[in-house]
């Protein structure tokens, strides 16, 4: 399913009251929106449970997706692209990481990559437990000239997050590597 179809669906079915309620119930660190202040393009949206169920019905062949959606309360996606490398504020990025730490989330993945071409990137995965159950998952992909932030609330496992990849604006992953979306699908 193309990202554009999901975005149109979200705009058509979201009311201001429902979106406000979803944002109050799902904690996102201050500064996440500020990460995209110099972005040349940005995509920001939130889908509540009913919108996710409706959208998952458009892909009737994916039983894993529907199973995962049954336990998800909402998804928030923020994707920022920058015209040149290094245009996002690394201080704000550090602040977001610190806020997760201070809020008691478990930092499960922290990778920083530098390859021979000088490209760098980082991936962070945080999990919040409630009574020994994963209640929230947040993922931050930071590349040279892009940032993707995905927050998922509900009963979900990190493995379930992989079933959401490629849907609802969550980037595809293959072999633990972020797969870029061709411009024609944006």
Describe it for me?
The chain has one domain (about 5-175). The longest helix has 13 residues, at about 90-100. Helix 4 packs across helix 6. About 30% of the residues are buried. The chain is built from six helices and eight strands, in the order ααβααβαββββαββ. The protein is of the alpha+beta class and about 190 residues long. The strands form two sheets. It has a six-stranded antiparallel β-sheet with strand order 1-2-6-5-4-3, with helices on both faces. The protein has a two-stranded antiparallel ribbon with strand order 7-8. The model is unreliable at about 1-25 and about 180-185 (pLDDT under 50).
Q: Helices, strands, pairings?
A:
Blueprint: H1 3-13, H2 16-25, E1 41-48, H3 49-56, H4 63-70, E2 72-81, H5 90-102, E3 106-114, E4 120-130, E5 133-142, E6 146-154, H6 158-164, E7 172-174, E8 177-179
């Amino acid at each position: 399913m193309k990202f554009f179809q999901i975005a149109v669906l979200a705009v058509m079915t979201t009311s201001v009251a429902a979106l406000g309620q979803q944002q109050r119930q799902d904690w996102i660190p201050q500064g996440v929106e500020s990460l995209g202040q110099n972005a040349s393009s940005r995509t920001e949206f939130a889908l509540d449970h009913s919108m996710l169920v409706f959208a998952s019905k458009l892909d009737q062949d994916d039983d894993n997706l529907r199973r995962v959606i049954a336990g998800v309360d909402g998804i928030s996606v923020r994707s920022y692209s920058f015209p040149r490398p290094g245009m996002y504020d690394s201080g704000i990025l550090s602040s977001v990481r610190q806020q997760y730490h201070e809020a008691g989330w478990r930092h499960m993945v922290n990778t920083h990559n530098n390859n021979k071409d000088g490209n760098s990137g980082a991936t962070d995965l945080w999990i919040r437990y409630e009574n020994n159950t994963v209640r929230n998952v947040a993922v931050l992909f930071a590349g040279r000239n892009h940032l993707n932030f995905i927050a998922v609330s509900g009963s979900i496992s990190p493995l379930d997050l992989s079933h959401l990849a490629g849907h609802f604006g969550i980037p595809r992953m293959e072999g633990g590597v972020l797969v870029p979306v061709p411009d024609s699908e944006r």
